[in-house]
Design a protein that fits this description.
Blueprint lengths: L5 E7 L16 E5 L1 H11 L8 E4 L2 H12 L7 E4 L5 E7 L5 E6 L8 H5 L2 H6 L2 E4 L5 H10 L3 E4 L11 H6 L2 E2 L3 H8 L7 H9 L5 E5 L5 E5 L2 E5 L12 H14 L4 H15 L12 H8 L1
Parallel strand pairs: 1-5, 3-4, 7-8, 8-9, 9-10
Antiparallel strand pairs: 1-2, 5-6, 10-11, 11-12
Length: 295
């Protein structure tokens, strides 16, 4: 795992505020988060052996995040402390219907370098799956993809402002965008339904694409075929980290030898179960919790 770790500052609100609008919210909650850390913890709770490569701040938030990761069994040997830099922070408003709005201050995450990744080359070479996101610099993501010895999964989130390097996409085995990220990568400006998602995914230079569709589940595009994997029907409490949970579960399925469609079937169940509890990492379920929350 190469990615970000943030301290999530979460406030529950009745509705997400519009531009220029102020809304009153509930009590502030400080919760471990960040796409990289969330995905690492999700995979670890599902039974994977996980090491995380990245950077933390040298503040209280960095200490809290390291402790939280280690409590879930994540190897933090290559999660470096960055002197004089604050940890990454995500400001999250969660609405009554479970939807959220997020602003991220990357902090130490923005200081992850290709050299940091090179120092963990042995870990990447031996990993069955290397899971990547875009909350750390592209230089670090490219280095990790080039050094990975197993399957490379890239979750292109947040949606990139500039086109991703062709060399990076060529090194990716499974690309996992949501509908917005897929449209951005394909240069498409418009709504993305199932048919459009399949068309856009076929345009990308990756051997396989898994498009996350929220309550509709996921679409797996592999070897020219498109397979829709529906999600269990749930009433969400908080959608924060559902996509991260999906990615961690997809990696878990691949590690266990499942094919991509069956891995996606497992991942949509884990993602749906995640929405039934509040908070990022606190909501990430174990296999037993997936069953108990959905059955």
């Amino acid at each position: 795992m190469v990615g970000s770790a943030n301290l999530d500052l979460v406030v529950d609100v009745t509705t997400i505020p519009l531009v220029g609008e102020t809304v009153m919210g509930g009590d502030l909650r400080r919760i471990p988060g960040g796409k990289g850390a969330n995905q690492a913890v999700a995979a670890a709770r599902l039974g994977c052996t996980v090491a995380m490569i990245g950077r933390l701040g040298d503040d209280e938030g960095g200490q809290l995040l390291r402790q939280a990761l280690e409590q879930d069994g994540v190897d933090t040997e290559h999660l470096l402390t960055t002197a004089g830099v604050a940890n990454g922070v995500a400001l999250i408003a969660v609405a009554a219907d479970g939807d959220n709005a997020i602003v991220v201050s990357p902090g130490a995450n923005a200081r992850v370098t290709g050299q940091d990744v090179q120092a963990a080359a042995a870990v990447l070479a031996s990993a069955t799956v290397t899971l990547l996101q875009l909350e750390v610099p592209t230089e670090a993501v490219m280095a990790a993809a080039s050094l990975a010895g197993g399957t490379v999964i890239l979750n292109p989130a947040p949606a990139p402002l500039e086109p991703l390097p062709a060399a990076l996409l060529a090194a990716v085995d499974v690309l996992v965008p949501n509908q917005t990220e897929l449209a951005t990568l394909a240069g498409y400006d418009g709504p993305v339904d199932l048919d459009r998602a399949a068309t856009l995914a076929h345009q990308l230079p990756c051997s396989a694409v898994v498009v996350t569709l929220g309550a509709q589940g996921a679409l797996v595009i592999e070897n020219g075929d498109a397979t829709h994997v529906p999600s269990p029907v749930v009433t969400p409490v908080d959608t924060t980290a559902a996509g991260d949970s999906f990615c961690g579960a997809l990696a878990d399925g691949i590690v266990r030898g499942l094919n991509l469609v069956d891995s996606a079937r497992w991942a949509v169940r884990v993602g749906a179960a995640t929405t039934l509890s509040a908070g990022a990492q606190p909501s990430l379920p174990t296999p037993a919790e997936v069953a108990s929350r959905l059955d």
